[in-house]
Amino acid sequence: MDRRLLAVLGLSVALSGVYLTAGLCSRVAGKPFPISSARWQAALTVLTLVGLAAGTIALLVRAADGVQGYAGIRLSDMRQIAARVGGGGRMPYTLITVSNEFGFHLIKGYLKGRFTHYWFSPYQREGFEPVLTGAEEVQRLWLVVDRGHMPPDASGRDLEYWLNTHAYQLSGEWVQDYEVLGYAMPVGELAMRPVSHTWRNGITLVGLAQESQTVQPGGVLRLEFYFTRASPIARKGNFFVHLVSSQGEVIGSHDGPPQYGAAPVSTWREGEIIRDRRAVVLPGDLAAGVYDLVVGFADEGGLVPLSGPDAVGPPWVTVGQVMVTAPQHR
Q1: Could you tell me which of 191, 276, 207, 281 has the C-alpha nearest to residue 237?
Q2: Is the model's pLDDT at 308 over the cut of 80?
Q3: SS3 of 259, please?
Q4: What's the rounded Cα separation, in Å, for the pair 101 and 85?
Q5: Torsion angle, alpha carbons of 104, 109, 115, 121, to 10
């Protein structure tokens, strides 16, 4: 805090203390107050109250801006998280926090809009079903995992992996020690159509489900992909989904391995089908038109080539199209 402000506050508090002490001593001794003028007494009373109020306000301001939050939680981190989490305007949303620190509840004071909050311990491994309550009204769900206070014997991944198989992950980023993941709520079963595309990492795409053939700018497109192991040893890699316009404009999704790590390829059994759910968020200013739905894999060596009949083409495959329509103004 500024030293000049501290000096002024110290003087105010000191004068207030002298005034209160003198008044108290006078009453105890049964003698008149040292200052007999009513105006001066009123002035000192006002000065006392102003000094106490100013000191209280300054301490509150300092607590909000200068203190490192609560129990190691930085308020600046909470503000950054709150800026990323929201319901997209007036729509309600669901916030889930996984933390081993009770003070993390302070984040609720920085959030805007209507939301339902769930808190889970990093040790909890089941019982996550209530977070999808009200999926008809709530469109977005946000998961914030407090990695900075994570116990060494807990992964904090159980709820995340459960959501990866029941909702549609659409974003993921870090705010200091906090992992912030965004999801689109489930909308019921999507009709799967068979496809067959194999990559040289030993993974075959055998099916695809698309929520809709048309979507408006600012909307969300939910997608499901069905994978199986094509060889005894399948290698890991990040799966990407892009919408590509005829002019070459690319709208990407949140890349990641199938089920975003919930189902490592090393655990896939022969003949097992792995369903991967993810969503693409369309920018609000996206131009109307037809967009190709392009998918592929990438690893540390770059884009993974396809094998079989697709090997002669590029290291990605077009599996469908999406019509982006002009927004309807009411």
Answers
A1: 276
A2: yes
A3: helix
A4: 20
A5: 10
Question: Any idea which residue has 């081993």 for tokens?
Answer: 100
State the CB neighbour count (10 A cutoff) for residue 266: 10
Q: How distant, in Å, are the alpha carbons of 194, 212, 222 from that of 316?
A: 17, 22, 20
Q: What is d(CA 100, CA 154) in angstroms, rounded to the nearest whole number?
A: 10
Q: Which residues pair with 142 in a beta bridge?
A: 95, 182
- Please list, in sequence order, all residues whose beta carbon lies within 8 angstroms of the beta carbon of residue 265, skipping any fewer than 6 positions away: 201, 202, 203, 229, 234, 235, 236, 257, 258
In this structure, are residues 231 and 299 in contact, taking their beta carbons and an 8 Å threshold? no
How is residue 80 written in tokens? 């950054």
pLDDT in tens, 105-143: 888 888 888 899 999 999 999 999 999 987 678 889 999
Judge contact between 107 and 79, C-beta under 8 A.
no
Q: Are 282 and 221 in contact (CB under 8 A)?
A: yes
The span from the CA of 48 to the CA of 44, in Å, is 6
Rg from Cα positions in the chain = 30
Q: Is there a contact between 142 and 95 (Cβ–Cβ < 8 Å)?
A: yes
Q: Which residues pair with 182 in a beta bridge?
A: 142, 171
Q: Find all residues with CB under 8 Å of 38, minimum gap 6, and list them.
A: none
Instruction: Report pLDDT for 64.
Output: 47
Q: State the chain's maximal CA–CA distance in angstroms.
A: 107
CA dihedral over 305, 311, 313, 316, signed as positive or negative: negative
Q: Are 276 and 259 in contact (CB under 8 A)?
A: yes
Spatial separation of the C-alpha atoms in residues 278 and 259, rounded to whole Å: 8
Question: What's the length of the chain?
Answer: 330
127: left (phi over 0), alpha (psi -120 to 50) or beta: left
Residues 145, 150: Cα–Cα separation, whole Å: 9
Q: Which residues pair with 279 in a beta bridge?
A: 222
Q: Which backbone phi and psi does 79 adopt, to 5 degrees? A: -65, -40
Helix 3-29 and helix 38-65, axial crossing angle in degrees, nearest 10:
140
